[in-house]
Amino acid sequence: MILSRYERMIARRYLWPGKGEAFIALVASISLVAVMLGVAALVIVMSVMNGFRAELFDKVVGLNGHAVVQGYGGRLPNWREILAQAQKTHGVTEALPLIEQPLMASYEGRVEGVLARGMRVEDIRANAVLRGKVLDGELKALTPGSGNVAIGARLADMLGARVGSSISLISPQGQTTVFGTVPRIVSYRVAAIFEVGVYDYDKAFVIMPLEDAQTLLMLGDDVAMITLQTTDADHVGEILRPLLPVVANKGLLTDWRQMNATIFEALQVERVAMFVVLSIIVLVAVFNILSSLIMLVRAKTRDIAILRTMGATRGGLIKIFVTIGTLIGAVGIVAGLILGAVFLFYRQSVVNFVQLVTGQNLWDPSIRFLTELPAKTDPVEVTAIVLMALGLSFLATLYPAFKAASTDPVQVLRYE
Q1: Which of 210, 254, 338, 269 is nearest to 71 (CA)?
Q2: How far is CA 252 from the centre of its chain?
Q3: Tens digits of per-residue pLDDT, 149-169?
Q4: Which residues are CB-contacts of 265 (< 8 A; sequence separation ≥ 6)?
Q5: 376 pLDDT higher than 80
Q6: Confidence grade of residue 211 (pLDDT, cut at 50, 70, 90)
Q7: Dihedral, CA of residue 21, residue 23, residue 26 and residue 31, to nearest 10
Q8: Residue by residue, what is the 3-state secondary structure of the chain?
């Protein structure tokens, strides 16, 4: 929309009302602030929701893979054949043997439920989720037959264990005697403490070499499952379809959507619901723009009539008021983007400050899964938010603009 020189001058003049029009200026300022808060709220919430999903997906998939071939009865015989076939499958980037078994861990009278995970030594050291997440000790100490394990930071806190402590793992699968099955109790030295950032993992995982897990659980040469990584998580079903005949009658092939369907579907529903609810804030802000322009048109009725008598066209008046309202919305949008970016940059500091002031735990990892507030801004979503807010601001200007353009100078100036 191109404005002529006089139209730009009038629009600039109406954006800064005179002495007797302070109330109109106040309403316009409130409109700008409302748009700013609405856009900032949308950007912040959608970024946090995206960050939560991305972070959770990365951690879950990083440890469990895009899909799992799980043996019936917790045992996968002839797993090397399945592993070799999986590695040859087009689209599979990684296939790793794994043992995972719920057990009990005890240390100095404290007992906690744990998830013992056996992995090949090279897989432990190469795992992107574990690498760089070690708080104390080192993963290099985990070697077959060493009796060393790595445990999650939350589990270490609950047990009161630290690097060098000797914890006992209790397996119900022990020796059978005349008095029944005697649980198998084996002591291991804590060689490393890690924190991957997912509460359920940090409070349960005990990671050990694959050979030690086979010995502990008396699996012989068997494993419990094979985890698979693919080139495209969204098309994992199609990629792994050729493996189904190989896995048939030996185990069950389950992808990440089936394993975590509830939580990811809930996140998707929540994202849509939050977007709709927070969009109402922008809509309310747009109504403020509408009301401020209507008041401005009312206050400037005489000026508009004079402009009409001086040759101002209806189209020119429409452009003036559309520009005023759209500019208020645009400035509010830019301010909202800046406010949202600042909040997201200092998000964890803001959460910590609010927790300090209120004394409430706003981000409980046991409920939120992740230990810190994540954020991931999607440029496409931000663009959609900006276009939505700008479009609504533009629509809010149409009624007052046409109302101003329809002013009859004869009726207004009759008694002047």
Answers
A1: 254
A2: 30
A3: 999 999 999 999 999 999 999
A4: none
A5: yes
A6: very high
A7: -100
A8: CCCCHHHHHHHHHHHCCCHHHHHHHHHHHHHHHHHHHHHHHHHHHHHHHHHHHHHHHHHHHHHHCCEEEEEHHHCECCHHHHHHHHHHCCCEEEEEEEEEEEEEEEECCEEEEEEEEEECHHHHHHCCCCCCCEEEECHHHCCCCCCEEEEEHHHHHHHCCCCCCEEEEEEEEEEEECCEEEEEEEEEEEEEEECCCEHHHHCCEEEEEHHHHHHHCCCCCCECEEEEEECCHHHHHHHHHHHHHHHCCCEEEEEHHHHCHHHHHHHHHHHHHHHHHHHHHHHHHHHHHHHHHHHHHHHCHHHHHHHHHCCCCHHHHHHHHHHHHHHHHHHHHHHHHHHHHHHHHCHHHHHHHHHHHHCCCCCCHHHHCECCCCCCCCHHHHHHHHHHHHHHHHHHHHHHHHHHHCCCHHHHHCCC
Q: Distance of CA 96 to CAs 24, 178, 223, 258, Å?
A: 67, 39, 10, 19
Higher pLDDT, 67 or 414: 67
**Tokens, residue 316:** 């020119």
How many Å apart are CA 150 and CA 147, to the nearest integer? 11
Read off the amino acid at residue 242: P
Predicted structure pTM score: 0.69
Say if CB 212 and CB 170 are below 8 A apart: no
Tokens of 119: 């992995």
| Residues in Cβ contact with 329 at an 8 Å cutoff, skipping those fewer than 6 apart | 31, 35, 286, 289, 389, 390, 392, 393, 394, 396
Q: How many residues does the chain have?
A: 416
